[in-house]
Amino acid sequence: MTHQTLRAALADVVAIPVTPFAEDGRVDSDAHRALLRRLLDGGVRTLTPNGNTGEFYALTPDERRAITEATVDEAAGRATVLVGVGHDVPTAVEAARHARDTGAHMVMVHQPVHPYVSESGWVDYHRAIAEAVPELGVVPYIRNPLLSGARLAELGAACPNVVGVKYAVPDAARFAGFARDAGLDRFVWVAGLAEPYAPSYFSAGATGFTSGLVNVSPALSLEMLEALRTGDYGTAMKVWERIRRFEELRAANGSADNVTVVKEALASLGLCRRAIRPPSRELPEDERAEVAAIAGGWPI
Prior knowledge:
The protein has 300 residues and is of the alpha/beta class. It has helices at 3-10, 29-41, 61-75, 89-102, 119-132, 149-158, 172-182, 198-203, 218-229, 233-255, 258-268, 285-296; strands spanning 13-15, 46-47, 80-85, 106-109, 137-142, 164-167, 188-191, 208-211. InterPro entries: Aldolase_TIM, DapA-like. Keywords: Lyase.
């Protein structure tokens, strides 16, 4: 794909599919493929296997590779595939090269998991991965509020294949400044905190947003995107109001149930099991009915 095509794919609903598990604890490949087809049939055109909603950190390397392969296979030209990679540099590079060889189009680099992250080290980390796969688009996933836009500009100058940014710091004013310091037009800016933050981040320069909710209702996510693309913030906020409680449940207690709530909604619709791996947990029995009621009132 050309950089222009990759940029267009990021200026969209960037879906983060869940990873369903079977009763024996292994990845339920059949359910996974069925959920991917449901997203594609619902109009989703950008898929991110091995994202946080897919429980990236709870998956084994073999599972992550299998999920990448299944996603590319199901996408089959219908969607752009942006594969989540991370951990240490050799592991991330190996995963990025596997994504390339499998036929994916881009990689999203998860935030470095390390107690001591320097700004220059952040650049070095992402540069090593980007330079290993010059054929792929690269999208840093930024959650660090201390990182400066100047460092991202430095990375972009060194690596032309860094085409977009998933920005997930919950501060719209900081995002606006960061994007302009890094180069507003140099990168595609993806609101990395999904629908709740999409309206405010779009007003500051984002043109796409990530979504876990899209697993449950592709129609709602796409409705919000269309409203934001046309500058119809009134309609966008009506969608926001419909999804507010669902997203509040996901964000509660430091987002402890972020993925759990999505899987519970899917389970209530009979689309996959609610099973989730530690350190996450299944939703307590007394909270399941509320999630089911919300999902039952949405277009699916």
